[in-house]
């Protein structure tokens, strides 16, 4: 998994490439702890290059959602059909903002 970050004003966009699974989720969680500061009020995850997301990845995304609910907003963009199906089956589509 690789991450690319872009910060504009108080908006942070994180492009994730590859798989978010039990191997890579801790890396994503660690990166997010460092880059999601109190100044970030808009967090955008670009999933256009995410191939797969396991329950470990869902846990990290939901942790980020919990943080952002207190300080701003979080959006997932460019989510592919497979991941959208996971979000729908788990009911997370009703909790997360997905565009």
UniProtKB/TrEMBL annotation:
Species classification: Bacteria, Bacillati, Bacillota, Clostridia, Peptostreptococcales
InterPro entries per the UniProt record, alphabetical: Anti-sigma_ant (IPR003658), STAS_dom (IPR002645), STAS_dom_sf (IPR036513)
Family: Belongs to the anti-sigma-factor antagonist family.
Species this chain originates from: Aminipila butyrica
Positions of the STAS domain: 1-99
Name of the protein described by the UniProt record: Anti-sigma factor antagonist
MF annotations from Gene Ontology: anti-sigma factor antagonist activity
PANTHER family noted in UniProt: ANTI-SIGMA FACTOR ANTAGONIST TM_1081-RELATED-RELATED
NCBIfam families named in the record: ant_ant_sig (TIGR00377)
Secretion signal span: none
A Pfam family that the UniProt record links to this protein: STAS
């Amino acid at each position: 998994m690789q991450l690319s970050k872009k910060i504009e004003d108080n908006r942070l966009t994180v492009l994730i490439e590859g798989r978010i699974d039990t191997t890579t989720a801790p890396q994503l969680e660690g990166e997010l702890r460092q880059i999601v500061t109190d100044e970030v009020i808009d967090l955008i995850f670009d999933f256009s290059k995410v191939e797969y997301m396991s329950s470990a990845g869902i846990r990290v995304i939901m942790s980020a959602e919990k943080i952002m609910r207190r300080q701003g907003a979080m959006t997932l963009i460019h989510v592919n059909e497979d991941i959208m199906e996971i979000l729908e089956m788990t009911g997370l589509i009703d909790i997360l903002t997905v565009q």
